[in-house]
Amino acid sequence: MSDLTAQLQAAMPLCATLGIETITFTASEVVMTMAWAEERTTGNGILHGGALMALADSAGAACASLNLPEDAGGTSTIESKTNFLGAVRDGLAVATSKPLHVGSTTIVIETEIRAGDRLVAKVTQTQAVLRRR
Q1: Contact at 8 Å (CB) between 129 and 107?
Q2: What are the sequence ranges of the domains in the chain?
Q3: pLDDT value at residue 76
Q4: Which residues does 34 contact at the CB level (< 8 Å), separation at least 6?
Q5: DSSP character at residue 122
Q6: Would you state the CATH architecture of domain 3-131?
């Protein structure tokens, strides 16, 4: 397990449960992966949409956290929109998150999830900038 993955899983324990790993972790791009596994599927051996949404939310939140203003205390997803475009029946789901808007009160992140060359989901989420109390 890489140091980035260990840090991610310590900060977001659900990522450990889902086997999410961190590949790239920069303010301009976060890449995370989740392998297909039978315990993460729905009917017909398709990777569950909720698992894919958790992958996208984790990558998006990580990307937003890297873009927070210095005086911020954290971030929280306040809106998420997912378009499923294909199924993941084996292999690896790869989420790539990039900032679309970085503001003082909200950050908007766009995430693509791919299985090989195929785009299987597109997610846009808005993250609230949380202030320290």
Answers
A1: yes
A2: 3-131
A3: 95
A4: 18, 19, 20, 21, 40, 47, 51, 52, 55, 92, 93, 95
A5: E
A6: Roll (3.10)
